[in-house]
Design a protein that fits this description.
The chain is mainly alpha-helical and about 180 residues long. Helices cover about 70% and strands about 0% of the residues. The protein is built from nine helices and no strands. It is elongated, with a radius of gyration of 18 Å.
């Protein structure tokens, strides 16, 4: 029986989102394949995490494209982005906390592209007067990642309804990022 590698990754991401410390045995069971089959596709946990990173980057880049970040107001682009990225939020939450991805000098160029696109969106919003200028685009980017991760965990744990994911993240981010008129 042929193994669908992408489905294995999605199922592994689903487990690791709920239990980041899951062993390869637990991943194999959750995916429905033997440990030996899992190891044929991924030599170990590091290889699995790197494959999940590649999937996460692909899903983030697809969400960025679908959200049309350059169209219309920056606040509307943020709303579209959060809505588009929601299906990958659990994977992003896992990857955001996976320290091995950030060791060493070299950041994955995929994350660098994503970070740059998000920072440009926030910069555009600052230049148009939509977003506060006292918060850097880099900080707003990190805050967005953090809120996406927190939203994914809250939905997974049943503390937040899936249908509220986009609204809650966007309202908290933009409520803190929108420039306020001086009194």
């Amino acid at each position: 029986m042929a193994v669908d590698r992408d489905q294995v990754l999605r199922d592994a991401a689903s487990l690791l989102t709920r239990k980041a410390t899951a062993t390869m045995d637990e991943v194999a069971r959750a995916v429905g394949i033997s440990r030996a089959t899992l190891h044929r596709h991924f030599a170990g946990r590091d290889a699995l995490v790197l494959a999940l990173e590649a999937l996460g980057i692909a899903e983030c880049e697809a969400a960025l494209n679908a959200a049309r970040l350059d169209d219309g107001a920056a606040t509307d682009a943020v709303r579209r982005l959060v809505r588009e990225i929601e299906p990958a939020a659990g994977l992003i939450a896992f990857l955001y906390t996976e320290n091995q991805l950030f060791e060493g000098e070299e950041q994955n160029e995929g994350w660098a592209r994503i970070d740059a696109a998000l920072a440009e969106l926030f910069r555009r919003g600052q230049e148009s007067g939509e977003f506060r200028i006292d918060l850097t685009p880099a900080w707003l980017t990190e805050a967005l990642y953090g809120l996406i991760g927190a939203g994914a965990w809250a939905v997974t744990e049943g503390r937040v309804a899936r249908n509220d994911f986009t609204h809650m993240i966007v309202e908290l981010l933009l409520g803190g990022a929108v420039r306020r008129e001086e009194p």
